[in-house]
Amino acid sequence: MGLLSDPNRRRALISLLTRLNSPICVVCYMAGVAWFMGLAFEPFTLRTYMSENAMGSTMVEERFPAGERALTTGREFSAHKKKAGGMPVDWLVKTMQARGLEVFTQRFSRKLPFPDENKERYMVKGTNVYGILRAPRAPRTEALVLSAPCTPGDSNNQAVGLLLGLAQYFRNQIYWAKDIIFLVNEHDLIGMQACITFSPDSCRGGSIQAALSLELSSDVITSMDLVLEGLNGQLPNLDLANLFYAFCQKIGVLCTIQGKLQRNDWDSVSGYSHSVQTMMLMVMKQASGRPWGDHGLFLRYHIEAASIKGINSFRQYKTDVTTIGRLLEGMYRKLNNLLERLHQSYFFYLMPSLSHFVSIGYYMPAFGLLAVILLLRALDLWVQLATPPPRTEDGITDKEQVSSPGVLSVLTPLVISHLTGVALYTLPIQFQEMAVEQFPVSETEAVVLTAIGVYTAGLALPHNTHRLLSGEGTEQGWRVLKLVAVLYLAVLLGCTALINFSLGFILALTLVPVAAFVTPHVPKVLSAFILVILSPACTLLFSVFFFQELQELPVSFQEGWLLYLSVISQGILDHFLYGSLVYPLIALLVYPCWLLFWNILFWK
């Protein structure tokens, strides 16, 4: 405190920070990236452990015997699905009633803002079927959910068969203290959202404590993959992942996360690279803000949920459906013991493997090292603005240096940048019909191309801004504007990182260098090229290719471009259908902030 309270020492500290500002910023950036890459090194991570005492032991005896019968039920479901041309509602109702469940159906319909060309749907109509197993030893105050989506074709029929088999087996047990809801939802997330948001009193279960969504790709399963990423980057309580891993270890089921097996050679280059790849896949999925399974929508209601997917990819292993049923039985028996919601373990974490995790206290310093660069640049700008201009030999100061910027010169870029962001957010949906009439494109193509067009039109902002200004901008004017933009970006990235660390960190990696180096005095062509490369749109394009490389599914530039357009359309759909915040965040805040730095580069 003495250093800051003494005026002389404070001036010396500020002088040191401003004199070494650029070297310190470079060191902070490199340290932040190095810190983040070091998070995947096993000695720097924590081993997973069970924090919830009620689930601390796996000493339960799993006895589920009906794996083959579940597969037979799945084949019956497949036959009736083909016959009905969709969800076999009547057959499901009769089958669930025969297993002693209270069965309810829910019809829903939803019109999309524009057609979803990936799944070829626009007006969505469907029916959810769910049966409730009432707890014999407790009132109807709490519930658990087991869901299986009814997907087109022959996929996931095995999951529905196993769900019905578990319903019959659970019905004969007397130790349940919570209602168990067995849900078969149609049209994936749209049906799940309809089921979550609407529940009449006549078919109400208890307050949902936890939920699992089951997906099986074939009769032969080699491993079980855990999917955690939910809407807007939300994650379930870490104890849910720990519970899955503990029972996989006990029963002997091969388990993966991000489709990656766990390796023990962490001290080798290949082992470390594998951990980095697994962690980066989680970062990319979380940053997308979209739910990566039917469980993703439960998390917004503070319901701990995850998706478990059966994978047939590791040929030397094999797991039968009976074993998978026992895995689920063990997990639900432990969840049945909960006396309160899962809350004792972490909600903010990254996982380089199922046995190790990185807590918020370990990964936030990586972001902090990037964010401090913005504060250092803001301090440097503040000192420059507060320092009086140098006098000439005859004692006269430069009028250009002494003149203070007008409010209009700073306010105009702010207003125009955000109006451009509003246009980017609203015009693609509103102008799709006009675009379809004027150009030979589909509705989805019209939305995406309109978004790209508005985004590109924002590059003309400096010229439009200066036409509105009275006179040319001053030297002090761009410094004031950059000070506002740097502080704006610091607050924006900080708030984003608190909600979705992965998204905030990726944006910081690209936007912080832009905020640090851009001035009107740098080479225009080269700097403009760098700004465009580090813009939000190009960051998304690079992320598409990087994600495919992480999945070991590299694509050509043409395929990557088509994926890029698909990602844009899905991001807009996810916002209007499920409430994903990534699209409005980029359009209304991040893009206008980037436009401020673009305006500074072309300041006159």
UniProtKB/TrEMBL annotation:
InterPro entries assigned to the protein according to its UniProt record, in alphabetical order: Gaa1
Annotated Pfam families: Gaa1
One Gene Ontology term, aspect cellular component: GPI-anchor transamidase complex
Protein's membrane topology: Multi-pass membrane protein
Entry's Gene Ontology BP terms: attachment of GPI anchor to protein; GPI anchor biosynthetic process
Subunit text: Heteropentamer. Part of the GPI-anchor transamidase complex, consisting of PIGK, PIGT, PIGS, PIGU and GAA1. Interacts with PIGK.
Identification of the protein by name: GPI-anchor transamidase component GPAA1
Source organism per UniProt: Dicentrarchus labrax (European seabass)
Gene name as annotated: gpaa1
